[in-house]
Design goal:
Blueprint: H1 3-17, E1 32-33, E2 43-51, E3 55-56, E4 59-60, H2 63-81, E5 85-88, E6 96-103
Parallel strand pairs: 1-5
Antiparallel strand pairs: 2-6, 3-4, 5-6
Length: about 110
Amino acid sequence: MKPGLFLTFLSITLLASGCTWVKPTPQGEQIRVLNAGQVTSCKKIGKTTVSVLAKVAFVKRSEKKIKRELETMARNSASSMGGDTVVPVSEISAGEQSFDVYKCANPEQR
């Protein structure tokens, strides 16, 4: 590969690795991310497993961005399931994470 082409490819890869591609839907923006102790009076309605790219080419993406994108995807998914809250139930592994989806009837919990 020519040095100029390689530098162009490297620059694009590095820029792409810093981008956030996942955007919340208007409904997804209303969904909360809580922990298990905060949903004791809520009804579990399902589970969602979401995934994003952990690497772009050979560049590892920021863990913070991966976490944020996974939460956004889980929130978007929960909104389509009729939930209003998600709780992470697994660690992030290779850009994938599982969440339980809840419906919290108590408006004060929202």
